Task: inverse folding
């Protein structure tokens, strides 16, 4: 990161500017001298005089948008039209470390941006389309909207706010590519290896009234030295070259996101740099999606590594990108608290699929807490109830993980398309996994279930489905089997900052009243979009059910349903109950000790366990896919183990066998 001296410069400038500020050049000199005195730097006066002589003070009058106007001393750039305009500083940062500060005047949410831009920036470009800058908008304190960052065009939400009169400081290290943002002297944002080349101070704004007053620190500070690590192309610069990256072809077999998740987990755990190409080539919309890039960042955070595209490192999604690089950190896995937000209905359980092996058997001592946001119950993905009721108990019972080491709490459910769900997963790392033997099915003894719902009629359908499912289960499995359901709870609570009782909720209500009065005039596009989404959510609903059959030998067979509706059609209890019972019956009739969904998730844990694991895999059914062959193929490729399936996966039921590598934590 930046040296203490460089960070101190920006902090001092911001505090000094917040205390007193005038537009005049004399005041600029006074503030600079005071900063120099506090920092103990000699020769500041001479440097300032040289900067004045070379016309490097304030904004560059020759590189300013026609939509802005500059003050006579060029210290202030102000909006002058109802279109976006930008200004760049007079000094280009090419080497060393540099700092500057901007006094914020009358900022407008999403129409006022401060940061840096590269030498080839187009000053009339809209911020959403400008890929030549790293800029920060302070949101709105009045409406409680968080700030936004745009890094090379990629949007990053939920950033700190700033308002009228605040001072935004920026420090850059051209040697390492690091950038830091300060607010009134306190560092609020810090990115490593983010810069792509020489850059200027940059301000972009819209409308008449907003203004940005610039003070640069003219001395070039020494860079932090060669120990900084920066990604350039496919090398790690800093004294050593990166090892040859193993190639993973994401188009093979199922050609979806599971290739990426398995590769990330093994790359992080084994400390091996990784290159995945042709990501999701087998999908109708190939390349990275929000869920995949969010999962990659989560794994990189867990292993303290670097990921490329570099925007993912800072919360970007790089939607559609077809390749990804991972360089795990040299210190290995680490514990602590981590948060991953897909900002969509992307399944949180698929985030966990890549992160769980890293958190559970990584060589670290600290517990891991994962806060995962997105879709908790979405089609084509395991539900959070499946993880809590099936996957975690199997890991505890058959792989030797203490029961108290795994926990999952659903704070809020999220469905397609809005998402907004949140779960908290707690993991205490195990010393290692024991081999699993799961080949005797036994007889059914009990069925546990949970029903859930949200939206229009979803919760009512879930409650009504319980009684019907109980009757269907007794009909299918006999009256002697014990059937129990957890109470149906309303877990579809409004997300933080949404709904009644919040500043944003009150703003939406006011906008709704205005919508009804004048057809939407006077509202922003975002407010109209919020109202349209809320209207759609009022007529959309979802309900589902997770069933788990337990046998005398401890086998857990899962079956579930998820019924979604839109346009007021509604969800019926019969659909929910019948689909779940039918899926459970099919999974049981397939003859395995686990269902096929579970089998492809256990493959990675079988490879990491100590000893010879054997699991009876079910025969092909209506839910069969290429996920299990994909998991086995890439586990063998990246881990070096061999899976043996005597009868082949295409038939069944057959026993899947594997001699694990015995990956274990080593206490230091």
Result:
């Amino acid at each position: 990161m930046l040296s203490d001296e460089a960070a101190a410069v920006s902090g001092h400038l911001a505090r000094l500017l917040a205390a007193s500020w005038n537009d005049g050049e004399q005041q600029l000199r006074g503030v600079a001298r005071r900063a120099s005195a506090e920092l103990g730097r000699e020769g500041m006066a001479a440097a300032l005089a040289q900067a004045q002589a070379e016309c490097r003070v304030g904004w560059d009058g020759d590189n300013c948008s026609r939509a802005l106007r500059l003050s006579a001393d060029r210290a202030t750039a102000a909006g002058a039209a109802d279109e976006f305009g930008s200004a760049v500083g007079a000094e280009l940062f090419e080497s060393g470390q540099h700092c500057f500060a901007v006094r914020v005047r009358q900022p407008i949410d999403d129409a006022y941006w401060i940061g840096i831009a590269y030498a080839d920036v187009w000053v009339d470009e809209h911020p959403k389309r400008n890929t030549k800058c790293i800029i920060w908008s302070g949101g709105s304190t009045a409406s409680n909207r968080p700030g936004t960052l745009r890094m090379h065009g990629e949007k990053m939400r939920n950033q700190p706010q700033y308002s009228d009169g605040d001072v935004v400081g920026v420090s850059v290290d051209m040697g390492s590519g690091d950038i830091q943002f300060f607010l009134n002297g306190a560092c609020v944002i810090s990115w490593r290896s983010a810069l792509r080349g020489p850059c200027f101070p940059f301000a972009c704004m819209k409308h008449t009234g907003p203004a940005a007053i610039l003070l640069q620190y003219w001395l070039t500070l020494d860079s932090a030295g060669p120990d900084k690590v920066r990604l350039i192309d496919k090398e790690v610069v800093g004294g050593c070259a990166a090892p040859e990256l193993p190639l993973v072809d994401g188009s093979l077999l199922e050609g979806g996101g599971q290739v990426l998740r398995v590769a990330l987990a093994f790359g992080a755990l084994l400390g091996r740099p990784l290159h995945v190409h042709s990501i999701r080539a087998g999908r109708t919309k190939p390349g990275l999606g929000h869920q995949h890039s969010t999962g990659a960042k989560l794994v990189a955070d867990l292993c303290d590594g670097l990921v490329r595209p570099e925007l993912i490192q800072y919360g970007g999604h790089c939607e559609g990108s077809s390749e990804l690089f991972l360089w795990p950190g040299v210190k290995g896995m680490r514990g602590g608290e981590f948060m991953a937000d897909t900002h969509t209905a992307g399944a949180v359980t698929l985030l966990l699929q890549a992160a769980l092996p890293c958190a559970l058997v990584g060589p670290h001592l600290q517990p891991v807490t994962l806060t995962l946001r997105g879709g908790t119950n979405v089609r084509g993905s395991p539900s959070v109830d499946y993880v809590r009721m099936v996957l975690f108990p199997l890991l505890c019972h058959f792989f030797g993980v203490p029961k108290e080491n795994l926990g999952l709490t659903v704070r809020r459910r999220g469905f397609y398309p809005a998402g907004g769900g949140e779960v908290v997963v707690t993991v205490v790392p195990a010393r290692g996994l024991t081999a699993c033997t799961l080949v005797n099915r036994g007889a059914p003894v009990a069925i546990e279930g949970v029903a859930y719902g949200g939206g229009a009629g979803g919760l009512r359908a879930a409650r009504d489905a319980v009684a019907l499912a109980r009757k269907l289960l007794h009909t299918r499995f006999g009256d002697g089997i014990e059937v129990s359901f957890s109470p149906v709870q309303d877990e579809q609570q409004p997300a933080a900052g949404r709904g009644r009782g919040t500043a944003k909720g009150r703003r939406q209500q006011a906008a709704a009243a205005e919508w009804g009065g004048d057809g939407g005039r006077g509202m922003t596009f975002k407010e109209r979009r919020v109202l349209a989404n809320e209207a759609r959510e009022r007529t959309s609903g979802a309900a589902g059910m997770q069933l788990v059959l337990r046998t005398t030998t401890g086998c857990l067979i899962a079956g579930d349903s998820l019924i979604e509706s839109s346009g007021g059609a509604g969800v019926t209890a019969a659909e929910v109950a019948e689909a779940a019972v039918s899926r459970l019956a099919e999974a049981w009739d397939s003859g395995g000790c686990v269902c096929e969904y579970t089998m492809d998730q256990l493959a990675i844990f079988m490879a990491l366990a100590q000893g010879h694991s054997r699991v009876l895999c079910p025969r092909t059914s209506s839910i069969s896919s290429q996920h299990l062959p994909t998991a086995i193929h890439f586990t063998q490729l990246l881990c070096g183990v061999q899976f043996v399936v005597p009868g082949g996966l295409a038939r069944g039921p057959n026993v899947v066998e594997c001699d694990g590598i015995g990956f274990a934590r080593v206490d230091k």
